[in-house]
Amino acid sequence: MAKKISVIVPVYNSINCLERCVRALCAQTYKELEILLIDDGSTDGTGELCERLAAGDARIFVRHKANGGASSARNMGLSIASGDYIGFVDSDDYIDSYVYEDLARALEVGKYRVAQISRDEVDEDGGRLPDVCTPPEKERFCDSETFIKELLMHRGDSSFCTKLFLREIFAVNRFPEGKLNEDFRLLLDILQEIPGICILPRQGYHVVCRKESTTRKKTKDTFSRVFMDIVENADMVQELVDRKYPALHAYAVRFNLYQRLDYMLHVPLSQMKGDNAFYKNVKKYLRRHVGDTIKNPYLTGKNRVYLLLLTAAPRMVRGVHGWKMRLRQ
Question: In this structure, are residues 285 and 260 in contact, taking their beta carbons and an 8 Å threshold?
Answer without folding.
Answer: yes
